Amino acid sequence: MAAVQVAGSLPGEPAREVPREPPPAEQSSGFRCLSARLCALRPDDSSSARTEIHLLFDQLISENYSEGGGVAPEVIVDEQNLDFLLAYAISALQQCSSWTHMEILQALAALVYCNGSKCQKYLPDLLGKSGILMKLSDLAQPDPEVRRAAVHCMANLCLSVPGQPYLEEPYPNICFQAFLTTLQSPKSSDMDDITFCMLLQNALKGIQSLLNGGKMKLTQTEELGALLAVLKKSMFHGLPGLNIELPTVLYPTPLPQYDGRPPVKPQQSESSASGPTANKKKKSKVKSKKIQQGEEEEEESSGEREVARVPSSGREHMHEGNAPHSSPLGGQSLPVEGSAAGKDRVSPPFRSASWKRVSSSESDYSDAEGGMQSKMRSYQAKVRQGALACFLSTIKSIEKKVLYGYWSAFVPDTPELGSPQSVSLMTLTLKDPSPKTRACALQVLSAILEGSKQFLSVAEDTSDHRRAFTPFSVMIASSIRELHRCLLLALVAESSSQTLTQIIKCLANLVSNSPYNRLKLSLLTKVWNQIKPYIRHKDVNVRVSSLTLLGAIVSTHAPLPEVQLLLQQPCSSGLNNSNSATPHLSTPDWWKKAPSGPFLEEAAVSSPKGTSEPCWLIRLCISTVVLPKEDSCSGSDAGCAAGSTYEPSPMRLEALQVLAHLARGYFSMAQVYLMELGEVICKCMGEADPSIQLHGAKLLEELGTGLIQQYKPDSSIASDQRVPVSLVVMFWTMMLNGPLPRALQNSEHPTLQASACDALSSILPEAFSSLPSDRQILCITMLLGLNDSKNRLVKAATSRALGVYVLFPCLRQDVIFVADTANAILMSLQDKSLNVRAKAAWSLGNLTDTLIVNMETPDPSFQEEFSGLLLLKMLRSAIEASRDKDKVKSNAVRALGNLLHFLQPSHIEKPRFAEIIEESIQALISTVLIEAAMKVRWNACYAMGNVFKNPALPLGTAPWTSQAYNALTSVVTSCKNFKVRIRSATALSIPSKRKHYGSVDQYIQIWNALVTALQKSEDTTDFLEFKYCASLRTQICQALIHLLSLASASDLPCIRETLELNGDMVQSFILQFLKSGTEGEDTGAPHNLHERDQLVRTALEHISSIQALAGDTAKRAIMGFLEDILTIYCDLSGSQVALPGLTTDR
């Protein structure tokens, strides 16, 4: 079935119906009664039947099709009737007189609306070379209304419905070129301004429909440049006081685009013509106006009225009619979609095309409502909005790297001294009289800024550049500064709450993507100081977006010294605003009102030393979450539930997110409030709203992670600045005695369960061991129980948490816990979900790390008590997992290496282990060689090195020895990734005895491979690999020296041959290796110069101790080679070297 628009309604607009007041019952059923009577008629040739049909048609035509008339906005037509009607309309256009074309085109537009895929067989007649629509939309068409209607029909043809086929080639491209030509053409002398505006709207709608349908791929630079040029021109169509000339094509360039606008005289500005007094008079006179196609009126900042979309759900209807003007806030604003508790606090200015078709005979304005000038401005504003909507679709249709080539055409740059500011999206944001257009421009700018972090990361202006040219990095930095300046200007000047929300969201996007660590200070300070008053704005959406912006500031490149200082500002700084609601922080001592928990007094005694100045942002967020509002919900607080005493849900959620950002980036500030935040978390997790509970659990996880970071061995935080372990124990005791266990058991909300598991895994190990035993058992029991969950999200989180717990010092020697955890992880490794298997593989790797740590303890009881049968199961599961996806494989091979390292002689002697050992090593060898992700191959080489550490394995004599060494030597000489080469060279230097390297041939193959790898250590086509060259050479030199320190007499002749060919090269690199410690290179080798020097001396001593074969000069040659290295090194370092007794055999 096909849905078509009623010809009497406004075609080209998504059909929708949003009546302001319910129509009378008799009117609402009028159309349906007439249509039902028409459908009930039976074929009859009698005169009475014909009269009845005529009367019915007459009544249908006379029916009130306005908004309040209750007329159904669309008629469902089956494909057979659609086919008949299309053929009839096309035939009528071809045969009837030109004066009928306008009405026929209206009917045709209604027929093809969203039915383009069903009109395929008529496309040659409509869009072919001699197609009727191509002729009627041509520039040579004498009737401008007919031309506009023809373009409108083409736009409706391009409008696609998701799930239905699109127009077949080449028709999308034909339509695109027709629309582009229409937009590029100037207004003809016989076309009035309003018709021209509607023509541009239809062309823009058509292009947007093509782009949204995904059929158009703007891959040609000329094509994209031409589209962007007309969009930029249309974006400023009719903007008061602005007249720009643009080239027909914009080309990608980092330089400012050509701007040919003439100077503007102040008296020509239309926006300045009407003052506040005139505006008030206009407002008092305006009582109502017609709204078209589901759009409601919106008050302009200049006193004009603009059209805004009203969101609706389900099928959208089209109508006309009157709607009373009302505003609960004293001023009309964009509609809030749903409630503030929804995902999006304010409806975007345009979500899908908001288009209208109004003939010149249809007047929406009377002289009393502003006259022709206001009407004209409204239509021009709709063109600008249409261009911005089309631009937004264009941004989504092209790659970001292509879009950023046009950055300077749409984003402002700091103007040179004496030159005017170039026109950009910020021009519209600052100067457009329509709040909706300003909001649209901001939405487009946000789309450009979203994901721009990599592009903007090149910006740099920390030093003054005095050069003959401006570097690209400085130009981007200048653009970032100008964006900050303009958006802050717009923030101060904006009066519309909805547009204000868009400005703040745009600022948040800019802050999230700007590299402040490479920019001069003060940018964030200006944003910070100007946004603080809006935290108390009367509109909840503005308050929420203000918190979002503050969250972006504290999360970007954290920790920043500038933000650290801002957080320590006094709380009263900049928080006064005349436009604010009743403040909910009436006194600086707000925390005294908060319910004090049983732990707060103890916490005050054991708090770490920190700043005495409280963090006002943390105080603000805590009060937003836990304290009741001091004023009743205003009309703008759409998210405030009836009877709720707290801030609207979006405010509380955003405040919790800001707290989480602070805990992640500025933990030193958050730790002062640790116990208060614990109270907040308990309160949140005890509420009924799952989203509040979830954000409480996320905050708990961030706080736990911050505590763990403080106690890491490499932490730079002084011990007296850390949170005492006793306080951490109190904190976690409060959590475990509170609602956290309930959240873990809340199977109705698996996302909350998973977050609670993540939070539980962030407990500090030192604190866990000090928890009461019943709390420890509670944690372990709940995690092991949740591992059986049928929800994959919960199971993945549980597997990860068990992998964390198994590393705890107080648990890792508990054989029963390790065995239980192993069984749980092995079960998860069989799950159908890749995410669960990946987490389980990571945990299995951690568990096997624990086995290795337990091996190194003096007490052998753990190895003796650990089940051999469980070891076999773990090996089999790890082998199976090593054949899985890369996410699983990387940790599976890590586990295999650890397990083979852990095997005791008592295991290896058993026949049932022989086959599994062989299979495990073959799995590692194949993983080393396969073309998998580099992380997988790196882990496989690391695992192979772990295998070589087990002296009980028959390395050197087993058949797999040569295969393992061949795999590693292949990687060290040819792998594209240098980090993998480094790891394979490390593995080759691990065996501690000469017999482990196998035969002489095997030994020499390894030696030659390392020399070759040293020679090729700079051969790479990937620039990113060059930074690892020094580390690779260092590791290879270490491996070569290690091999020399183990060499036997039969190995020496072959070593000498290699040195005769490549001795100079090897010597120069070993000398670099000896010196590299003084150059500060992080090569992974010993940094102590004495250690490096001692490696060579040990090798020399070993060679000198070998009983050389009679007549063999290889020993003396190799000793001479090593002595030369030590002599040269000592000469270079200015120290004396003594080689007593080492040359006696020479």
UniProtKB/TrEMBL annotation:
It comes from Vulpes vulpes. Transmembrane segments: none annotated. InterPro entries: ARM-like, ARM-type_fold, DUF4042, HEAT6. Residues 382-563 form the DUF4042 domain. Coiled coil: none annotated. The gene is HEATR6. Residues 279-290 have a biased composition (Basic residues). The lineage of its organism: Eukaryota, Metazoa, Chordata, Craniata, Vertebrata. Residues 1-29, 257-371 are annotated as: Disordered. SUPFAM superfamilies: ARM repeat. This is HEAT repeat-containing protein 6. Residues 302-322 have a biased composition (Basic and acidic residues). Residues 266-277 have a biased composition (Polar residues).
